[in-house]
Amino acid sequence: VYGFPVNQLFDMLLEIRDQYSETLLKKWAGVFRNILDSDNYSPIPVTSEETYKKVVGQFPFQDTELEKHPFPKKFPFSEFVPKVYNQIKEFIYACLKFSEDLHLSSTEVDDMIRKSTNLLLTRTLSNSLQNVIKRKNIGLTEIIINTTHLEKSCKYLEEFITNITNVLPETVHTTKLYGTTTFK
């Protein structure tokens, strides 16, 4: 309003945003490590409809064959899958929260969230999974099953980001999530 240039201030805020993203990545590295360390890598047993709905509410999973089976039944993945999925969503919310007062366009916010989420998937979560694979006491088959389900959930994460930023995926500058290649 007074005619003073504020571009340097906005540049500094964007630099702080990048540093904040790095801080979030470090925090979530610990979160993922705790989840992966505490998991038993066994399929989730379900004894009631209520428990089944709770797991499906935490993680986008659809299997008509499993739904037909009587209780008790088991999900094909372990508890780390819905926990990691929910933590990725929490990370996305944390990125969004920081960008609220930066006066960025919705496409800039969307791009920032997608880039940060890509770093979370390709670097932070990938490193955590590699550390688990290096352990001798955990079978590779269990990890492959879990990561396959996380890979399938990436489309839901993209939809989640689209819903909170209101930027359509068909937009020219929309960054795609690299989670599918990371999990492969």
From TrEMBL:
A cellular component annotation (GO) from this entry: membrane
Lineage: superkingdom: Eukaryota
Domain Exocyst complex subunit EXOC6/Sec15 C-terminal: 8-184
GO biological processes: Golgi to plasma membrane transport; intracellular protein transport; vesicle tethering involved in exocytosis
Membrane-crossing segments per the record: none
InterPro entries: EXOC6/Sec15, EXOC6/Sec15_C, EXOC6/Sec15_C_dom1
Name of this protein: Exocyst complex subunit EXOC6/Sec15 C-terminal domain-containing protein
